[in-house]
Design goal:
This protein is α+β, with helices and mostly antiparallel strands. It has three helices and five strands.
Length: 84
Amino acid sequence: MNAKNRKTLKDVFARPVLSGILWNDIEALLISLGAEIAEGRGSRVRIALNQVRAVFHRPHPKKETDKGSLQSMRRFLENAGVKL
């Protein structure tokens, strides 16, 4: 995990929830953690990490992830055993 991925992880776990985190940065973080990412229909993305699975929607037309999705991503990472 490089410094940018560590910053993204810190931003995902930040309280209060931050806005403006790029989805591409979150995907790069997930890949660095060893997650498997598969494309679904439309903007769906299937993610598997440490035998925990979830489906997220890529933000569009904006590139930034909204606060609700960030909260869901935080829960997913916590359930997968990822800690700050």
